[in-house]
Amino acid sequence: MAEDDISKLHIDKKSMAVRRGRKKRLLLLVLIILVVGGGGILYSKGLLSPTPAVQVAGLQIVYPSQTFTVLNASGYVVAQRKAAVASKITGRLISLFVEEGSGVKRGEVIAKLENEDSQAALNRAEANVNLARSNLDQAKAELEDAQLNHRRNEQLVAKGFVAQSTVDASEARYKQAKAAVAAQEAAILAAQAALEEAKVMVEYSNIRAPFDGVVLTKNADIGDIVTPLGAAANAKAAVVTMADMSSLQVEVDVSESNITQVHVGQPCEIRLDAFPDLRFGGMVHMIVPTADRTKASVLVKVAFKKMDPRVLPEMSAKV
Predict the structure, then answer these.
(1) SS3 (DSSP) at 23
(2) Which among 297, 303, 316 is positioned nearest to 268, based on CA atoms?
């Protein structure tokens, strides 16, 4: 019985094959749907469209002012007010209060030189003034005494109590006292003049800014010998070089053949090589009344209508 039951057991392979075939077709159909759907999405976004041909072209920025430009000129930004600040006396630099880029005001002390000798001369001049004033006080006291004595003798000689020679002597003493007072007053003036001279010599040791501006270069350091002429070896003629940044102008060379097209007050457009994308308004400030025979050109100065702190001296410019 058990063997009969076992013999009846079998596997239906046909139904299994049918189910497997259905699953494969279903998976294939789903895959096709995904591929088609994804392709449609990519096509709608343009990712499957053919790449268009690209043509390369040059681009040039054109400003409206270029359409009515009369002529172009090249030059440099130059400070019209510039100074190499030095000293009127020779001395060793002991203090320096500025550096490159420092802004200074007119009269501000930039540096100091050693001044022990001039300070001693100042002290001596002050003492001489005090001495002259003391001598004047003494001379005035002598004058007052001589004057009283002379008046007394004049009264006595009228009464016959003293001789005329006594009156003459008192008169001479009175005149001498007056002369001594005048001499001491002159001595005070001389001492005061010497005092002012000593003050000036002390002041020469203070190197001051001649105008409002900015320090461009520092030409000397602490310990250097500063001399007005700079003739000595290793001596410095100037301590700093400074410029008035409000006086910046562009100096350009214009050909002699084109100078007739330029006139004072003519509007200009300034372009600096340091800022190629910026344009600065300007106007012709001056046409220098002389020509350069080596370049056959005339120097023209162009002023900025509005100063910009980014503009620096010696920058290359085109106008």
Answers:
(1) helix
(2) 303
**Torsions phi, psi for 83 (to 5 deg):** -145, 140
Q: Which residue numbers in the chain have pLDDT < 50?
A: 2
Instruction: Give every CB contact of residue 273 below 8 A, 6+ residues apart in sequence.
Output: 315, 316, 317, 318
Do residues 148 and 174 touch, judged by C-beta distance below 8 A? no
Cβ-contact 201, 195 below 8 angstroms = no
Q: Is 300 left (phi over 0), alpha (psi -120 to 50) or beta?
A: beta
Structure tokens that stand for 139 in this block: 């001379």
| pLDDT single digits (tens) 107-148 | 999 999 999 999 999 999 999 999 999 999 999 999 999 999
Q: In what order do the strands lie in the sheet with 103-104?
A: 82-85, 240-243, 213-218, 103-104
Residue with tokens 């007056």: 178
With beta carbons less than 8 A apart as the criterion, state whether 73 and 253 touch.
yes
Note the Cα 71 to chain centre separation in Å.
Answer: 32
Q: What is the DSSP letter of 236?
A: B
Inter-residue contact 109 to 161 (CB < 8 Å): no
Which strand ranges, in their side-by-side order, compose the sheet holding 109-113?
206-208, 109-113, 91-96, 225-226
pLDDT digits (tens, 9 = 90+) for 61-88: 655 566 677 899 999 999 999 999 988 8
Strands 248-255 and 225-226, sheet pairing? unpaired
Number of Cβ within a 10 Å radius of residue 154: 13
User: Which residues sit opposite 93 in a β-bridge?
Assistant: 113
